[in-house]
Amino acid sequence: MMNEDMTDTNAVELATELTIAWLGNPNTRISADEVPAFLGKMHDTVSALLGATGVAPVAEPAAEYTPAVSARKSLASKDHIISMIDGKPYKTLRRHLSTHGMTPDEYRERYGLKADYPMVAETYSESRRAMAKKIGLGRKPGQRKGETAPAAAKRKAKVEENA
């Protein structure tokens, strides 16, 4: 009971402060006769926001998202992945998803996709992989281009014998 009284007092104070601030705005034009009605409306609104009215807020049902294309059609081309959000083709979905405030996991969950659903088109991934190999990424330290790991071990053993 005491909690309800405090909430009601807070609602009155907030409504009063908001009304004073609104009336203090030089662009607001209202007659003195309209102020009590505005204050009452402000109090009702603040009370509803604070939950003091006793009316439980209506929970919105989870939004049902309809994909723009099917999962199969989304992956039909090796050159691009078609977004289920807008139906447009992308080489990589990460940036597109971030513009919609989503992570890849949220995207997969929203459209019921498997955990291994790709976020990058196959040909784009292959070209990036080839470029990385060409510049030497993924090699072990001391390994030369075109040399496999066993060949590097043989070269190292040979150097140790000569020393």
Task: Please give a structural write-up.
By secondary structure, the chain is mainly alpha-helical. 51% of the residues lie in helices and 2% in strands. The protein has seven helices and two strands, in the order H-H-H-E-E-H-H-H-H. The chain has helices at 2-24, 35-50, 71-74, 94-99, 104-110, 122-134, 149-162, and strands spanning 81-82, 89-90. The protein has a two-stranded antiparallel sheet with strand order 1-2. Helix 1 crosses helix 2.
Structure keywords:
mainly alpha; 51% helix
Sum this structure up briefly.
Helices cover 51% and strands 2% of the residues. It is an all-alpha fold and 163 residues long.
Q: Helix content range of the residues, please?
A: 40-55%
Distance between the termini: 89 Å
**Quick one: biggest sheet?**
2 strands, antiparallel
Number of strands: 2
Structural class: mainly alpha
Order of helices and strands: HHHEEHHHH
Overall, the morphology is elongated
Q: Helical region count? A: 7
Give the strand line-up of the largest sheet: 1-2
Low-confidence stretches: 53-57
Query: C-alpha Rg, in Å?
Result: 32 Å
Mean pLDDT over the residues = 81
Report the portion of residues in β strands.
under 5%
Present the secondary structure layout.
Layout (H helix, E strand, L loop, with lengths): L1 H23 L10 H16 L20 H4 L6 E2 L6 E2 L3 H6 L4 H7 L11 H13 L14 H14 L1
